[in-house]
Amino acid sequence: MNPTSEDRHLGEYLLKELLSENDLTRTWLAEQVSVSRRVLVDELRPDQAERKDAFLTDVRAKAAVEHPLIGSVYEAVDEPGICFFAHELLPGATLAARKKVSAPFRPLRLAHLLRRVAEAHLQHEALGHATSPLGLENIHLDEHGVIRLDNLAIAGPRAPEQSTRDIVHLGKALRGLAAAGQPGSTRVFTLLGWMQGQGLAAPLKWQQVRDFCTQIEQQLAAPQPATPTRSPLLTHRTPPLAIIAIIVAIAVIGTLGYILQTRKVAPGTTLRSTLPAAILIPAGKHPTPDGTDEEFHAFRISAHEVTIGQYAAFIETLQTLAKDRRDRTFDHEDQPSAKTSHQPDDWAALLAAAKTNGSWNNRPVTLDSPVVGVDWWDGSAFAEWKQGRLPSQEEWFAALRKDVKEPAAIHAAGWISVTAETPDRTPTGLTGMAGSVCEWTRRPAANPANPLGERKWVIIGGSFLKPGSNALTREWSDDRSLRRPDLGFRVVFEAL
To answer: What architecture is the 93-221 domain classified under in CATH?
Structure first.
């Protein structure tokens, strides 16, 4: 492919490299100059001007898609002699590239990825979006395990056979990405066979694919019997999700009951049965820490840093999984092999103090105090367990700035329990942004003071151990294994 763009501009987009070309369009890697953002630009070829209406109709179909997993359309331009649209450059490598280098997924991870693909295509089905054929080249996975899909919407009504087409193709294509000989491998290969129609009277639907993936994830994440009488097999019936949900609810209620019965409550303390729910940040343009604006899909972010009590439940789950040697289920794929535990520094003493409303490092602590002494790998694994992820610094800042004009003016509180009276609070209910503990974010970034320097992992927010720090404070570290008594994290989830 011709790598030169001859420094062409299309509107505010500087064309960098021609990536592909067909009989209708040219696809360019470009820079949106106004915000210094890399994007993709699909340009209608000048010799195809008579097909402009059909081209723009397809663009409008793509622009109508709003789903956090599906790439966004930024804008379309139709001017004399120029017709193009700019859309999101999805991060990471495609599954096609991963298959080419023979890098299979663990069964639990592949079930998770396939479920996410199914959820995105259920959105297309629900809204009647017609779509181009789905292939592994359209599924992107970034370095942090976040999956995104190309926007394949096209004009016209959706035909039922489009889903069958994509499910059958994906069932065949994913076989080379499914690891064999691991817990859950048989279940994953069975599902991929069903997606191809093997042994079924009727083809699978996306809803069934999603439900079967959910069942596999739950089976692999839950403790298995030590001596099962038979291997757990998928059945071609609706998975008993309601039963599973009831069992999980009973377990959660039992755990909460045990905590409430065993912990001592200090005089005057109001005991709450639940912590604040995650805060919804709407889709749209939001300011970033580096003074630009960025377009975001809607997302939810924890109202507070992950607490000791929440993290203790995670550790208990890992201890249960360890009995079947599955305690690395939630580990990030790049986690060093030498890291074999997610217990925070001085965990036994910290947890014991929290359970009794005692003190740790000469500071009062409860189960609702933010957990500390955790590294990036710990935060990533906890977030995966909660079916979320660490926030990027841009998402964290977008949440901070919602209804806040002067972030540096937020009153910083110390490392205290999360309560309805926590003073370190934004108007939307986010606590601990200005003080409490500073927090890990998801990906590395350049320090604006040294924009050409090495990209490092961003730690954001104020710290109770650093007087003068506030919600605008940032640090950069090249060590994801860093642990400190003032370093915690919070989690981002998809919008409901």
So the answer is: Orthogonal Bundle (1.10)
